[in-house]
Amino acid sequence: MKKIAKILAVMAVALTFSLSASAQDMAQATEMYNAAIEAYGNGDATAALDGFQKALAAAQALGEEGATLATDCKNVIPKVYVKLGKDAFNAKDFTKAIEFLTTAEKLATEAAQEETVADVKEVMPQVYLGAGNALLNEKKFAEAAAEYQKAIDINGENGVAWLRLGMCKSNGGDVEGAVAAFAKASEFGQKAAADKQLGNIYGKAAQAAYKAKNFAGTLENVLKANEYGFTKLNVYGGMAAFNLKKYDQCISLLEGDSSTNAKYYLARAYEAKGDNAKACENYKAIATDKNFGAYATSKVGTLCK
Fold it and tell me: What's the pLDDT band for 9 if we cut at 50, 70, 90?
């Protein structure tokens, strides 16, 4: 009988010790959680994450007793990752920002935290834009294009991402892809900037075509550039139109241009159309020019009577 009583006494002491140790472990886990809350409130997201993760591990080790605390940790950890991601983005550490935000979205999705998931989806395109801009500045066009595409994959109406994607494709030689991207940028609020880029694309194409004596290609691209407000190369279009015997288009493109090249081709276009008065007006304007003067003077002598 005495032996049984002794065993029961030992068991009671062991149980009391176990309960005491468990309570102590719970107190430590709670203390870690509270310290993490304080760190987060002070803006130290790194310390907060470390604290919440340690508190979570401690709470999970306690089983059912620590279940509530573990849930609290799981609920707050995704938000901490979002804060870390935003901090990294502000510091222009885009790689870290993407890493933190991706983790945040995964954990928030698992915890059914729709608000946090939405927060990540709002911030992530800005991060991809920042990463793309950094690469674009380094002329790493293919790499930058990949980052802009990720932003577009999240929000297909991101006009700035479409615009920058077009710039990457244009610089990388993908004219067709650039034109398509700029069209999207124009559709989603970036019309002025997109038109400027499109004008430049067709302007370059016009110059290349004229250099190759491809007058049809020159005229086509000059007229395309005009659609986007790019008129700097109209003289090329006018000269190309003259060589194609499209005199009305030549006159339309060159009228109002005071350059000697424009005046020369205007005079010849008007002469070809039989408008001697207009032809004389333009020949007289270049009669003293070192390149066209002799020819213009001879024409003035025969046409302008």
Answer: very low
